[in-house]
Amino acid sequence: MDSSSKSLLKVSDLTKKYITKKSFLNKEYFHALDKVSFEVYPSEIVGVVGESGSGKSTIGRIILGLAKPDSGSVYFGDIEISKRFPEELRKDISVVFQDPRTSLNPRFSVYDVISEPLIVNNFPKGEIKERVLEAIRMVQLDESFLERYPHQLSGGQRQRVAIARAIVLNPKLIVADEPTSALDVSIQLQIVNLIKELNRLKSIAFLFISHDINVVANLSNRLIVLYRGKIMEQGDTLSVIKDPKHPYTKLLLSSVLPSNPRERKSFPEIVEDNNSSPKFNGCEFYDRCSFKSQVCLEKPNLKKVGSREVYCHLY
Length: 315
Ligand SMILES: Nc1ncnc2c1ncn2[C@@H]1O[C@H](COP(=O)(O)OP(=O)(O)OP(=O)(O)O)[C@@H](O)[C@H]1O
Ligand code: SF4
Ligand SMILES: [Mg+2]
What we know:
binds iron/sulfur cluster; binds adenosine-5'-triphosphate
């Protein structure tokens, strides 16, 4: 990405803590996000990958104004959106969630689902119909689907409808939080291809969140690897995949992308950590790392390694 162009979204030092233990005298906090910073440029697909509980959805929720950070900021262009999400920007940032069974109102027809954002934004009647038709065609469903209800659709078709709703206001950015995870593998690929197509044809930027590095590697221009609320590594997707720097990225790729595709599996098994105590002040990846040394008992900094950022004492 041309670093001279202006970013669409700028996330800086985003921190979100939750209280894990509260007693009369002290509280213990758990960092769902710890100083997370990244940018999304116009028309770019940025992938966020990490295992369950790493903070992926928390990032999405803060960007969408559904949660507040404890510190840090999110700017959309020149406007700060993390303190108070400006209603006038709702049309510029939309969302696709993991499970279209729960994200689509079962009492709404497909037409109602897709037209709702236009009605809320006071679009004229004639234009609403036009835009709904354009959106349903963009997601490669024909008009006859507009009369159906969510229960009359397959999982893949429901997700296409959710995407049609997300694009109907011509957003600049879509936060897609695990949009393929509830789908069969063959349908996952169709949705990934659809997202690529929408990105190409409509220049919509995506923040694509997934636990599956395989999916994200196939789709994104840039990749952010998250572990326990910290960015471990971020950079150009191809270069991260070809030459992972961080031990966690290496582990993910070694277990997910072996040369024989039939051997592919999801994330490496999660071993029981003993550095999960809030009192442990070393590297978050310490217990699972094969490269750790004494120095890792202190936290590393996120360092520039070429065009990459890596959170590790090895660099
Ligand atoms: N409202 C909350 N109160 C307390 N803890 C929370 C809350 N929301 C999230 N968390 C915790 O913050 C951490 C990050 O949650 P988040 O939902 O962002 O993870 P995730 O990476 O999206 O996981 P998954 O892949 O399972 O969706 C988790 O440990 C979660 O339990
Ligand atoms: S800082 Fe140390 S423990 Fe952490 S990832 Fe790097 S080598 Fe491993
Ligand atoms: Mg999540």
